[in-house]
Structure formats: C-alpha cells, structure tokens
Amino acid sequence: MSYKEKIARRAAREVAPGQVINLGIGLPTFIPHYLPPDFPVMIHSENGILGMGLRSERGTEDRNLIDAGGGYVTTLPGASFFDSALSFALVRGGRLDIAFLGALEVAENGDLANWIIPGKFAPGIGGGMELAQKARRLIITTTHTTKKGDPKIIRSCTLPLTAAGCVDTIITELAVIDVTDDGLTLREIAAETDLETVRNRTGADLILPGGGAAAVPTF
Amino acid sequence: MGITMDKTTTAVEAAIARVGDGAAVMVGGFGVPGTPFILIDALLDAGVENLTLIKNEANEDHMGVSKLIEAGRVKKLITSHLGLNGAVIGMMNSGEIEVEFYPQGILAEKIRAGGAGLLGFVTDIGIDTILRENKQMVTVNGKEAIFEPALTADVALIHASVADRAGNLAYTKSGRNFNPLMATAADCVIAEAERIVETGGLDPDAIHTPAAFVDHIVPIRDVTAEYGILQHHVV
Lengths: 219, 235
Description:
heterodimer; A: alpha/beta; Glutaconate Coenzyme A-transferase; ten-stranded mixed beta sheet; three-stranded mixed beta sheet; B: alpha/beta; eight-stranded mixed beta sheet; three-stranded antiparallel beta sheet; 11 strands; 19% helix
C-alpha cells in the first residue's frame, strides 16, 4: 500500500455519517474510495457542487462537470449545483463539517502554511484559506516530512500562514496527531513504524495519551 | 404589452467592439466549464491591449484567457489561483504581468457586491495572514476585520448553456461558477449561448440570470473542441 493509500484510508475513518465534507486537491481526493459503499456523506466542491461522487470512469466524462482540480466527476442523488458566491457562503457560514487539506508546514499551535513559498511557489490562494479558517473541523493529510526529509510538523511555521490555529488533526503515513490546548497529542501510530521514528521525524514535542506509548493504538 | 426585445447578434465582432484598450473585463468560467472561448477568441482578434482581466483562474496553458495573457494583451490579472497554468505563473514571476490574488470566495463576493450595488463588505478571512497587508481595517463588535471593496468591470464575457432572445440565461452543472455573479457586475454584459430559444421558451423558475443584466447574446454555432473533454484530466 502506498503512503497515499495509507493516509487516505485512515482519513476516511474520520468522516461520520451525514457530514458535509470538502476534499482538497491531490491526496484528499482519494478519501472517498475508502468510504463504505452507500456511506451517507455530501462532498462539496468549491466550483459549485454539493453531492459529488467518485471520479468519472474513462469514456463517461461530462464536459460540464469537473471538480475544483479539473478532474471529471460524477454526482450522487441529492446533488446540487450553485454559483461561486453561494459555494463559499456554505464554507464561511459554517455548513462544512470537515475540510481535508494538504500542508507545507503545521505548527504545534494548529497554525497552517500551505499556499506560498515566497520566491519559489506562489500559484495563488484558491479556496484553501476559507476552508482552513471556517470548516468546523480541519484535518491535514500529508506526508510526515518533506521530500528532503525535513519535518513538516514543527514548533512554529516559517512560511506565510494560510490561517492561524485552524488545524484539528494531522494524518500522515506515520501517525494520527490531534492539536490540543496542551500541544500535539499522538492518537495513533502506523503499524510499520515506532515511537522513536515518529519523534525523530517530528519537529515539535508529541504528548502521549494516558498509559504511555504502549497505549497508543496502531493503524 | 409583451417582451419583444431581441438581444441576439451573430456579429460577435460588433459586440466585442464594446471592449476598448485599457478596459476591465470579467470572464466567467472555472476551468473549461463556463469559459466563453468564442468571445475570448473574438477579443483576441480585436487586438485590444492593456486589459485588466478578472477571472477565477487563467484556464490552462495556451487555452482560453491564457491566449490573451500570453499574447501580452493583459497588464493586470485579478484572480484566485493559477496552479494549472505554468505559462502565466512564469509571466508573473518575470514581471510581464501584474497579478492580484484573492481567496476564491472573497473574489466571488467582491464581484457579487459590485453587482449588487454595494461598495464592499467586511470579512475576517485572511485576518492572521499576509493578506491583511495594505487592507483597510475596521472594527466590528469589538473585533478587527478587513474591509474588502466591491469589484466591477467595463465588460463581462459570459458562457451560458441556453439563452432566450430577451437575454435570460441558464447555466449547466459546474459551468455556473462565476458566470451569474459577473453578469451582474459589468457595464456591458456579452453572453455566448450554446442554444437560443424564443422568448418565453424558458421556465421562469429555471432562469439563473434575468434578462435585465444582459446586453448581447451571441449564439455558438458549433461547440468546438476547446469546450470538450481535456484528456489529461481523464482517469
């Protein structure tokens, strides 16, 4: 199983029946594949869709129906289409139960940086800032470290923020971590790794739940 | 009494002649759906320059509004995200074009406010980020917030799936996006439509943009390949 599959599969378990969710571009779009068949969920897409289904199978694409990343998608019974102002009224107005986004950096206080590396990467803002700031729950799905091996989870962000104190949970190929008032709390650890590895690859302190390392479940 | 106005014109060049050098132009669309490719090509042929272009994104390299930008016709782009357009990102980085970014829903709301005759609105989006730099700050209920001015344009280019001759418009699926907002926010609104019906042929409940907002309707004679499926987005 690839790290993407591992993260998406674990992230899917955070979704409760009946929730309204948004999936950021990239890895989060794999999450619906790991929801049980007929699982009741409404997927929102920034370009004006509520009730999105899986990607269109080859040959069944509709030229008028894409997600915010440009991929051809299907809709489920109960779906609706709307304009871009209404689409973000849904987000800013608090109707979104969970947003799943990627990250460049996440700080131990829940700050998120994921939209710009000044002088290197500046494609724009998109819907990420509003999703990060206003979703009821923000779950970051990301590799634990950068391609160079540097920690993405750190004490404080060095890059310009997307939103402050917005992250609730971080799901990586190594761990599930909750941002709490006390700091970063290790909720689960990947079966393929160990606590020392996770700590070595994390740039901030990790709090263990009551019972210590032995009590941390694996995934 | 009846509605006899016929806003359809096959002279796309005459309609597009409303866009002069230095004009601010809103262009509907989010990716291919809702992008008015035929009107964009007509604007390219018209040769006008120094445009301020307002669009959610810049389509993809060599497509849609990217053709205008790559031809050097646009001095300033007001947008949300350029992630699928390396050509325009390159022009931005080399200073060939000025780009002003907004969060997607804030861009939409600026246009909505402009079309609604409002001067702007107040928001907390971006309050803890570099976006607050150079913004007018206000206090609402004791909390700091950003005043965001409304956005209007000289001309809006709109893609509808169906129009009647009076100028009522309806959009299809994810092709709606910024189109109905931009159709309210420009002095002159030009809409291309894949299908034209006689006035009275649309269910009033199914009309997304009422005729009063629309000045010209350009029929799309044939839906060309650029409106079709992009193979690199097929799984």
